[in-house]
Amino acid sequence: MDDTAEVRGIWEALGLPGIVDVHTHFMPKNVMDKVWRYFDDAGPLIGRPWPITYRSDESDRLATLRGFGVRAFTSLIYPHKPDMAAWLNQWAAQFAADTPDCLSTATFYPEPGAVRYVTSAIDHGARVFKAHVQVGGYDPTDVLLDEVWGVLAESGTPVITHCGSGPTPGAHTGPGPIRAVLARHPRLRLIVAHMGGPEYTDFLDIAAAHDGVHLDTTMAFTEFMEQTMPFPPADHPRLRDLGHRILWGSDFPNIPYPYAEAMRAVCDLPGVDDDWLRGVFHDNAAALFGLHIRD
């Protein structure tokens, strides 16, 4: 069975109208090319070979996602230096305007003026933000971000946050800084990327303590990730208990295996049922983002 047929077979068997994928990457071509070169070189934040399975041009990638039956997705962008976030936001806003099934995405960096361009992005329709603490190399408790977190909390705009220490630790990764941010801004809607791996247990604790915290499945549970960052078996029952706040994410196109393989890994988790899977692959994100997807 080819990848597309297998992906569609999974969600069709669950009676869903399709998939909502909260963790996909579309970027300016020059930025995406640099990201792919970094993966090709197995850079220090990766540490092992990482082939890009869906390396193709933008129109091809969009056709692939739509062929899978992905009905809504993101264009996760992220800066690694000052004076980068605002122009990435401009690009992403135009991409979303041209791509109606993309949730308009934005980002930020700790720099003067960040609260201004974050507020502007929200006012112009941004529905989700990306914060990449590892690649950005910044402290999420930086004073330059305090107003930014406040604006995001007040607006209720979800923030997909790579804050776990996988695949290798960063200067400010791990649960501590995020706990500090949530202590100051408890109404934040955070989506912890990659289930917070490898600190899975800590981020499950954070989600249990904060109603606004969700986790995305991106790369978690796959054979590729289990080799270096295995999910603790003792926490499997907690996945069931927090199922209403777990969202499907793939990391498309930057994944080193077929899309269907990651979906199978989620379906094969012990103790999950079809209702749980329907929530993860579609219903939870549809509710969070107010999507009305019809057959």
Automatic annotation (TrEMBL):
Entry keyword set: Hydrolase, Lyase
GO biological process: secondary metabolic process
GO cellular component: cytoplasm
Descriptive protein name: Amidohydrolase
Organism: Mycolicibacterium bacteremicum (Mycobacterium bacteremicum)
Keyword Hydrolase among record annotations: yes
Record bears the keyword Hydrolase: yes
One Pfam family of this chain: Amidohydro_2
GO molecular function terms listed in the Swiss-Prot or TrEMBL record: carboxy-lyase activity; hydrolase activity
Domain Amidohydrolase-related: 20-291
InterPro entries, A to Z: ACMSD, Amidohydro-rel, Metal_Hydrolase
Upper taxonomic lineage: Bacteria, Bacillati, Actinomycetota, Actinomycetes, Mycobacteriales
